[in-house]
Amino acid sequence: MKTDDLYSLLGVRPDAPPEAIRNAYRKLARTNHPDVSRIPDAEERMKAINRAYTILSDPEKRRQYDRDHNIREPIPVSRETKGTPARPPADFSPGPKQAPPKPAQPLAKSHWMAYTAGLCALLLILVFVGVWITPPIPDEPQVIHTVVATSQPTPVQKTFDDWRTEGDMLIAQHRTWEGLAAYDRALKIRPNASELWIVEGDLYEMMGYFEKAITCYDHALKTDPQTSVKVHKKWAVLKDITPLMDLTDLLIDQENYTGAIAVYDNILAAELQNKNLQKRILSAKIYALQKTGRSDEAVHLSKALELL
């Protein structure tokens, strides 16, 4: 399925507002989701629709996509006809013509001589004053005291382990942002430290900065392709968290509670630590369980929700 033009895929114009993009996505999801549609390529089509919505619903990703594909809004056309000269104001009236200025007359010879004499007199006065205020040279030589600057000790450069240890200490003191700054200095020294990238990603994810967490997990996966499956799962869920939550809302609206529960379980399997996201997903799953008659599971999950 061709998905180069994301706007055409969602059926919206390039200048469509976010609300129009969201409505278009929900409309397409109702008819193309594999749980609803019987089209053979429904799963592939839904993946393409999710990808288009993920990019176009994020302002920064949408701007990057528009730049990469040279998508610009149409330039407004001026109402004035080309080549039409600008009209002067209504109260404009040409004034009387002014006579051209007369050329400057050369100085008279007598004035030039007076000017030269005055300049010479001023120079003589300046020379006389300079000689008068010049201090006399002493008979004995002056002793010049030379101050020798003492050298400062060279500061010791911190190593990767130093910055890592400092970051761990600051995090333990709940000074998270200072700890992250120390981790950043350590990663500048050793940018292939995938384990530290994962630590940073977990901190950002826990605080709700999902884009920063995705960037850290990206670095970890690039530097060490053998990174654990858990990190892969977190990275995949965070990248699609907005379309996944919109999909669950759509399934609930369609009373497809079993499909919604499956999506909730997929998100929970990533073991994300952000409490607001956990509470939102658990509450929605409890509602879906009650609607399907699975009351025992709903009660058990309610106890877990109370502990958050």
Q: How do the helices and strands line up, and which of them pair or pack?
A:
Layout: H1 6-10, H2 18-32, H3 42-56, H4 59-68, H5 109-133, H6 160-172, H7 176-189, H8 194-207, H9 210-223, H10 229-239, H11 241-253, H12 257-268, H13 275-291, H14 295-306
Helix pairs in contact: 2-3, 6-7, 7-8, 8-9, 9-10, 11-12, 12-13, 13-14
How does this model look, in words?
- It is a single chain.
- By secondary structure, the protein is mainly alpha-helical.
- Among the domains are: 7-68, DnaJ domain (Helix Hairpins); 160-228, Tetratricopeptide repeat domain (Serine Threonine Protein Phosphatase 5, Tetratricopeptide repeat), CATH 1.25.40.10; 241-306, Serine Threonine Protein Phosphatase 5, Tetratricopeptide repeat (Alpha Horseshoe), CATH 1.25.40.
- Helix content is 62%, strand content 0%.
- The chain has 14 helices and no strands.
- α7 (176-189) runs antiparallel to α8.
- The model is unreliable at 74-97 (pLDDT under 50).
Overview in brief:
This protein has 308 residues and is mostly helical. It has helices spanning 6-10, 18-32, 42-56, 59-68, 109-133, 160-172, 176-189, 194-207, 210-223, 229-239, 241-253, 257-268, 275-291, 295-306.
What general outline do the C-alpha atoms trace? extended
| Computed Rg | 38 Å
CATH top-level class of one domain: Mainly Alpha
Kindly state the mean pLDDT as a whole number?
Answer: 81
Derived structural class: mainly alpha
Terminal CA distance: 43 Å
Strand content: under 5%
Order of helices and strands: HHHHHHHHHHHHHH
CATH topology of one domain, anyone? Serine Threonine Protein Phosphatase 5, Tetratricopeptide repeat
CATH superfamily of one domain: Tetratricopeptide repeat domain
Task: Give the proportion of residues in helices.
Answer: 55-70%
CATH architecture of one domain: Alpha Horseshoe
Multimerization state: single chain
Point out poorly predicted stretches: 74-97
